[in-house]
Amino acid sequence: MDKKIRVLIAKAGLDGHDRGAKVIAAALRDAGMEVIYLGLRQTPEMIVSAAVQEDVDAIGISILSGAHMTVFPRILEQMKNNKVDDVLLFGVELFQMQMQTIKN
């Protein structure tokens, strides 16, 4: 039997709208993945800690507040500090220039 892909979905920051995150979580679950939904108002530290504890394959971030330019680099920093280098991080659609800024 194949191992199910484990995906953690979280709402980062103070954004209180979670409908989109719940829709994505349901779609991933319907596609056969195991989904862990952390819920609203998660810090980067909480997200990465949960990802490590749950041994996930991917972390999905939903953020509508516009704080992604602050939150994503903090999550990446926490992933690096916790040696989480084999987990896919995905989320909001980023413009090419914003993605380059986050990578640096």
Care to describe what's here?
The structure is a single chain. The chain is α/β, with parallel strands linked by helices. The chain has one domain (6-103): Cobalamin-binding domain (Rossmann fold). The chain contains four helices and four strands; from the N terminus they run E-H-E-H-E-H-E-H. It has helices spanning 19-30, 44-54, 68-81, 96-103; strands at 6-12, 34-42, 58-62, 88-90. Strands 2-1-3-4 form a four-stranded parallel beta sheet, sandwiched between helices. Strand 3, helix 3 (68-81) and strand 4 (88-90) form a beta-alpha-beta unit. The N and C termini lie far apart (40 Å).
Concise synopsis of the structure shown:
The protein has 104 residues and is α/β, with parallel strands linked by helices. The protein is built from four helices and four strands. It has one domain: Cobalamin-binding domain (Rossmann fold, 3-Layer(aba) Sandwich), CATH 3.40.50.
CATH architecture name:
3-Layer(aba) Sandwich
Q: What is the general shape?
A: globular
**What share of the residues does DSSP label as strand, in percent?**
15-25%
Which series of helices and strands comes N to C?
EHEHEHEH
Q: What percentage of residues falls in helices of 4 or more residues? A: 40-55%
What is the topology, as strand order, of the major beta sheet?
2-1-3-4
Decide which structural class fits the backbone. Answer: alpha/beta
Mean pLDDT across all residues, rounded? 85
Radius of gyration computed on alpha carbons: 13 Å
Low-pLDDT runs: none
CATH superfamily label:
Cobalamin-binding domain
| Tally of contiguous helical segments | 4
Termini separation: 40 Å
